[in-house]
Write a structure and sequence with these properties.
Blueprint: E1 3-9, H1 16-29, E2 34-40, H2 51-68, E3 76-79, H3 85-94, H4 99-103, H5 106-114, H6 121-124, H7 126-135, E4 141-142, H8 149-166, E5 175-176, H9 209-217, H10 234-246, H11 249-260, H12 266-291, H13 295-324
Parallel strand pairs: 1-2, 2-3, 4-5
Helix pairs in contact: 2-12, 3-7, 3-13, 7-8, 9-12, 10-12
Length: about 325
Amino acid sequence: METVVSGIRSTGRLHLGNYFGALRNFTRMQNENKCFFFIADYHSLTTHPDPKLLHSNVRNVLVEYLAAGIDPEISTVYIQSDVQEVCELYLLLNMHAYLGELSKTVSFKEKARKHKDNVNAGLLTYPTLMAADILMHNANKVPVGKDQEQHLEMTRKFARRFNNMYGVEYFKEPVAYNFGQDLIKIPGLDGSGKMGKSEGNCIYLDEEPKSIEKKVKRALTDDGPKAPNSEKPDYIENLFTILKVVSTDEVVQHFDDKWNTCEIRYGDLKKQLAEDIIKVTTPMRERILEIQNDDAYLHRVASEGAAKARESASKVLADVREIMGFKRF
């Protein structure tokens, strides 16, 4: 079986972008691969979260992983900070990462521009920590969203550089995996870029149906197309992008035809979109409500997952230390 590794930052509740960008693939992969799915709480520190909220954010993601269908009896589900080996591998990989390449990543430049008062070293070396997460299990595949492609390519570069520098063929070069389809980027409802918590344009997996209906109803639209077969503006294309992942092909084709013939009614589109989003999220919301207060179950999942992850990580770290020349007296 091939090894799959991926994780999501614990910065709050998960949303449709998290689900269709990665989480749905997690559940589809687990029966055919050796899977490690972690909650990236170290990664969340780049934005200096309130210490009082750090644990509850981790807990939320753990609950939502399980509610979305990740089976801890099949997959290894763990919290990043429970596996200390990742910190040492992160340090060792940083010795092979260069300022020029780290500072040129799109995410670093964008976040440094938006948050000039918080351009910290963790933000700069975010790709190295991501590489450590992946390489410490020597993964073959990584289910990631479109926005993480560049970081994954850097992981491949770090793996290749390590192998070349020490004359070994130790690390695999992991590839993005989306079942042969294009990587998915779920847009926000406000006509801007991707769906995200910080952008305030997302729909959460545990969101109540009424709230979903209100958010979709407020989505940005216009007066409709002026000529048949017109190109859709970005904010309308965004609605169709979400429709394509939550609705049937027939539904998508229906509204596409209505657009092309200048007969589209945005009220009908939004009503259908809200209904289909609710169909997707309702089973997860019900499961979240069922397990979110089951402390014993959550403790068992996290503890057993940490033990299995450490077993895998400690072997890789021991090999890396030996390859680099570390020896015990």
